[in-house]
UniProtKB/TrEMBL annotation:
Keyword field: Glycosyltransferase, Repeat, TPR repeat, Transferase
This protein's name: protein O-GlcNAc transferase
Pfam families named in the record: Glyco_transf_41, TPR_12, TPR_2, TPR_8
Extent of the TPR repeats: 73-106, 107-140, 141-174, 175-208
Taxonomic placement: Bacteria, Pseudomonadati, Pseudomonadota, Gammaproteobacteria, Chromatiales
EC top class named in words: transferase
InterPro entries: Glycosyltr_41/O-GlcNAc_trsf, OGT/SEC/SPY_C, TPR-like_helical_dom_sf, TPR_2, TPR_rpt
Record-listed E.C. numbers: 2.4.1.255
Protein species of origin: Allochromatium humboldtianum
Keyword presence, Ribonucleoprotein: no
SUPFAM superfamilies per the UniProt record, alphabetical: TPR-like (SSF48452)
């Protein structure tokens, strides 16, 4: 009998090695029927379901396998990976620890533990776990790209690049390594190089929605591609990942009553300490819960105090981690959501596959991304006329829904402290500055900023961002300014957080283009620092324009690169005027619509009600 069991196991293993997963699944189910007391069949089927993305189903089989044999480190490791995908972090970590207690040399368990620890932001422990995995199995590819992408996220780009290149040496067709190298390239603002890596990955795996989404993300920052060309990629995304679901769009049975309480669902992977909290928290606080039931769909791996805060502010909280797009779509339909709001766009951990299935009568995208999703399934893009002038509506897949400028609010961080006096009055030179990621600092930006520095003797430039935490990244950027004749000593590049004291050392802020900054521009103004922005490609290139219009200072908006330089020089030439601006800018901000939390929430709710009226009129 043992020989028969072993032979059947070998058949399953051979099918898996040949990637004949369908046949392997049939064989595993047959094995379970014949040998229900043997953990192998349960473990094999659990693993096959895991790789198919059916994590909840995988969990059931792996739990059964562990109940039969709780001393198998491989099975505990597989169970840990499944629990991780389902967002059950503590249980997942426990499984990896149990596997390592049984076999401290289980490389895959060290790798899985590294993933969990990285998501828990236990940085040094995560790195140690990944390195243990690499030491035990130096030819195992996963720890290379897992540690590599983790280090890239920490700003240790050079180390991350080296690890991912090693992964490619082991497997030239490693999709994950190609994706990670693209991310490293974009952090260094080598956008054509990033697109090259994404194209390689997409050629290998055309149906990889995540990598196609990443490519769209980086295209938004490209300094020379036209808006028409960029939009064409978004249309291609819809053709590949959106339109195919139209024939199965749900027939919505929501009661078309104009005046009833509406059920609003907000989706985000960022209900945590994230820049979007400056807008989302005050909206959740000010929603009229008599008129609107609020549900948060949270794609959360780890949580923090802001997650707990959000949970208290909504009527219903749904953790979407581990749910397939189809399952989440069905859940949203069962919840009878009237209006589903996307706050992620093509950022990490988005669930646009759910929106493509159109699980609610009305869907809206807003704030978290800044440009179209490309999906014809989404009804509205919420914005203002400064960000998207009416003549630019054609480069959006959604219908533009205009709010008064600005189409958002901003709540300042606690402990920012008071503004200070203009630094230039004491230092006797102007300090320009930007709090921005490397992806935004392209050759156009460097050329214009260098021209400003050349025309204003003794001036300095501060660039503060996580992108420049290492000497490698700093020197790469400095070299580009040196090529434009700017001395190294005039540049202060690094990373400090929180950046309030960095802002206190700036006299004038400089926005990037064609993709403007966002939250950091609000922070700059709130600390009394005016900034110059260039109104570039809608809509990501007009974020700065909307912010300045909303605060009442459109005079700092430039329409050409020459005008950008001229406006920077004009501000720098009059220190008394600049000191007066610094003195009053926080008051200007506090008095502006950006700080009208209740008023904006009411305007947003009015927009929701008007959207609902349109739907009802078409469905009575």
């Amino acid at each position: 009998m043992k020989k028969i069991i072993l032979a059947r196991q070998n058949v399953i293993l051979k099918l898996i090695s040949e990637k004949k997963n369908h046949d392997a699944e049939i064989a595993a189910r047959s094995f379970i029927l014949k040998h229900p007391e043997n953990d192998f069949g349960w473990k094999a089927l659990g693993a096959l379901l895991f790789f198919r993305g059916e994590f909840q189903e995988s969990l059931d089989f792996l739990l059964k396998a562990v109940s039969i044999n709780n001393k198998d480190p491989e099975c505990l490791n597989a169970l840990g990976n499944t629990l991780m995908q389902l967002g059950r972090i503590k249980e997942s970590l426990d499984c990896f620890d149990r596997a390592l207690e049984i076999n401290s040399n289980c490389a895959s368990a060290h790798n899985g533990k590294g993933l969990i620890l990285s998501r828990l932001k236990r940085t040094e422990e995560a790195i140690e776990s990944f390195r243990k995995s690499l030491k035990l199995q130096p030819n195992q590819i996963e720890p290379y790209y897992n540690l590599g992408v983790f280090l890239i996220g920490l700003g240790r780009i050079d180390e991350g690049i080296e690890l991912n290149r090693h992964a490619l040496e082991l497997n030239p067709n490693c999709i994950e390594a190609l994706n990670n190298l693209a991310m490293a390239s974009q952090d260094l603002c080598k956008l054509d190089e990033a697109l090259y890596f994404y194209e390689q990955a997409i050629n290998l795996e055309p149906q990889n929605k995540s990598i196609c989404s990443n490519r769209l993300f980086v295209l938004n920052y490209h300094p020379t591609k036209s808006k028409k060309e960029i939009f064409s990629y978004y249309q291609d995304f819809d053709n590949k990942f959106g339109i195919c679901y139209q024939k199965n769009w749900h027939l919505h049975k929501n009661t078309p009553n104009l005046n009833r309480r509406l059920h609003i669902g907000y989706f985000s992977p960022d209900f945590c300490i994230h820049s979007t909290r400056h807008s989302i928290e005050p909206i959740f606080e000010n929603h009229n819960h008599d008129q609107f039931k609020i549900t948060a769909y949270a794609e959360q791996i780890s949580t923090d105090f802001m997650t707990a805060r959000y949970r208290k502010l909504v009527d219903c909280w749904i953790n979407t981690n581990g749910l397939t797009d189809e399952a989440l779509s069905q859940r949203i339909q069962d919840d009878q959501i009237d209006i589903l709001v996307d706050l992620a766009g093509h950022t990490a951990n988005n669930r646009l596959g759910v929106f493509a299935r159109r699980p609610a009568p009305i869907s809206v995208t807003w704030m978290g991304y800044g440009y179209t999703t490309g999906l014809s399934a989404i009804d509205y893009f919420l914005t203002d006329t400064v960000t998207v002038p009416p003549e630019e509506e054609k480069i959006f897949s959604e219908k533009i829904w205009y709010l008064d400028t600005p189409a958002g609010i901003y709540r300042p961080s606690n402990h920012m402290g008071e503004t200070n006096k203009l630094p230039a009055l004491q230092k006797k030179f102007i300090t320009f500055g930007a709090l921005t990621r490397g992806i935004r600092i392209n050759f156009r930006v460097i050329r214009v900023w260098s021209e400003i520095l050349r025309k204003i003797p003794k001036s300095r430039l501060i660039i503060n961002s996580k992108s420049f935490v290492t000497s490698f990244a700093k020197n790469k950027l400095i070299e580009q300014f040196v090529e434009h004749g700017i001395e190294r000593e005039r540049l202060e590049i690094g990373y400090n957080t929180p950046p309030w004291d960095i802002l206190r050392n700036m006299d004038i802020g400089l926005d990037c283009f064609p993709h403007n900054s966002g939250t950091t521009l609000h922070e700059t103004l709130y600390m009394g620092v005016p900034f110059i922005t260039l109104a570039d490609r809608p809509s990501v290139g007009r974020i700065g324009s909307s912010i300045l219009t909303g605060i009442g200072h459109p005079e700092w908006i430039a329409n050409t690169e020459k005008e950008y330089v001229d406006k920077a020089i004009m501000l720098a030439d009059d220190l008394n005027r600049l000191a007066e601006i610094r003195k009053n800018l926080r008051f200007d901000f506090e008095s502006s619509p950006w700080r009208d939390e209740k008023g904006f929430t009411q305007r947003l709710e009015k927009a929701y009600r008007e959207m609902w009226k349109i739907w009802c009129n078409n469905n009575f």
